[in-house]
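2024-03-11 09:14:02 INFO queue: dequeued item DNA methyltransferase 2, len=416
2024-03-11 09:14:02 INFO validating residues
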Amino acid sequence: MEEGLSKPGEEEPWRVLEFYSGIGGMRYSIMKAGVNATMVEAFDINDTANDVYQHNFGHRPFQGNIQTLSAADLDSYGARVWLLSPPCQPYTRQGLQKDSNDARASSFLKILELMPQTSQPPVMLFVENVVGFETSDTHRRMAEILEKAHFVTQEFILSPLHFGVPYSRPRYFCLAKRKPLYFQNPLLNQQLIRAPGPLFGHNESMIVAGGNEPQGSLDKSLQACEPVERFLEFKHPSNGVEPESSWSHINVPGALEISAIGSLEQYFVPLSLLERWGNAMDIVYPDSKRCCCFTKSYYRYVKGTGSLLATIQVLMLHLPGYNVVLVLVASHTGATIIVHSMDYMQRRAEDKIESLEGLRPRYFTPREVANLHSFPENFNFPQHISLRQRYTIITCSMLLIFVYSYTYLPTVKSLY
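2024-03-11 09:14:37 INFO prediction written
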């Protein structure tokens, strides 16, 4: 599996182990950042995820129980860097929140406890998990192990919104380096950072141990985000649509994948679900600069599982002195101007279900979710992976944008 990912002029690459590899998010991040690294082995117990990993990288991860690994096994890989994205279910708000008592947390703790027993422990670790992990007993145990092993850490809660991606999915990240290695900005050591400013060498006041990101900083991040349309497989009509215009291809990853998994029609939300759950749906538009986090139940359920996309945009113009409204309805088939009375429009506005039906919302496709997770254009699914399986594994995948953005920052160049 030893595929080198070297930058020109650099010496021997870092040897990396990728625990809980999933569909390869960590590996793609390292590749995107151009880090001089060799991925020695990947580990994941999920058969479907490993099918996708093998399809894209030509190597199937180790699929056994990693709790059976010994210190000698880990030494045999000669890896200096460990990447870990353990199961998040023990720490999610929707779960049972059993923390370290959850069996799914045990493998992560076992790997950490093995580290001091190895003859060649790693010099760097990167850990990713859901928000909530930072207050868990598992996190406390991790911090104790790392401190005893002479690691210094920097911790973050960051979202794609901080990096221009219109996707609200805050995640926990921890970077750890074993002494004598060090971070160039020691002020961030042993801190939990909830905004990206300190990473770029400014706004040190954003370093906070608790609470939320300052509202002004969040607003600034939202303003800098690309519109949702930039991440879609097909363009949707915008506010400036001309009557003769229609959907056209957009140069984003996966623009041809819809034909491989069926018609776009399968992504539209049925009327029965609009009638039942319309009040609980989060609807976004192509020009929106934020959408909600997708969960693994997305496409199976609509309530609280992620945003839906309006495929029809309605623009209204009231003519002063007349009891009529000009309505511009734009969709993938073109645009139409309709004249309605003010009374009719008032009644329709009061009927939310009819209004939602008029927007014809659809689910984001798996490729679009992958785009929001910043997966590269050449990432794709094997043909035998069903639509529901695609949603399950892509919504649970890593956020690449933070990892490869972080490696470019001058404050942490010494990490590599």
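2024-03-11 09:14:37 INFO annotate: Residues 103-114 form the longest helix (12 residues).
2024-03-11 09:14:38 INFO item closed
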